[in-house]
Amino acid sequence: MPRLLPVETCGIETGEDVNLNEPPRNPQEYLRQVQLEASLCPDVVVAKIDPKKLRKKQTVNVSLMGCQAAPQGFSPSLKWQREQVSNFSEIRRPKQDAEEQWKKFCLGENVYLNSPPTDHVTEDPGLDYVKVGFPPFLSIVSRLNQATVSAVLEYLINWFEEREFVPQLGRWQYALLACLEKPLLPEAHSLIRQLARRSSEVRTNLEHQEDERLSPLNLMICLVARYFDQNDLADKED
Fold it and tell me: What is the pTM of this model?
């Protein structure tokens, strides 16, 4: 090998005694010891492998037995078991209720229930947010942790998968995307790709370029593809 450092020839060639059992007294002596150790290493090393160990089969013990029968008097009654299942179901229900409440909160009852808005509703301080949906105020979204941001985004994207795009949905999707921290968690990565694909699907069904939904749909696709580096979803220039 080519010499990279100005190291003198080790003791094997010069006759100088280099003791590998003693600590080096200076950098030059350390380099000589390294040189000597390298010269003592064989050019080819062959591992010693026991063929018997390679032929050993790995076994996984899987028990097909059921639960052991409870001793006499230890087994709960069927009534008790049914009560526990009922209570557990009630505990799981708030998650489903929370999803529906978030949809109503963000989109408003008019959109959520698919009911026509009243004619007198206008953008003024007396706006009925319960009916038209609460805007994503900074005071609201700034308090959401990443788990909640991902959860609400998932709720709204699931709603979007089966329905058309509405302005309330676009405002909340934009705000939630702004709250996502990079690098993305795997579940968030999947969600934003789902959002971009659905936005492109709705866009293909628009009849004219003047449709007011075109710009927000393009924005969703652009942010997912360009900002969050999902470049395979990006629109190409005409």
Answer: 0.59
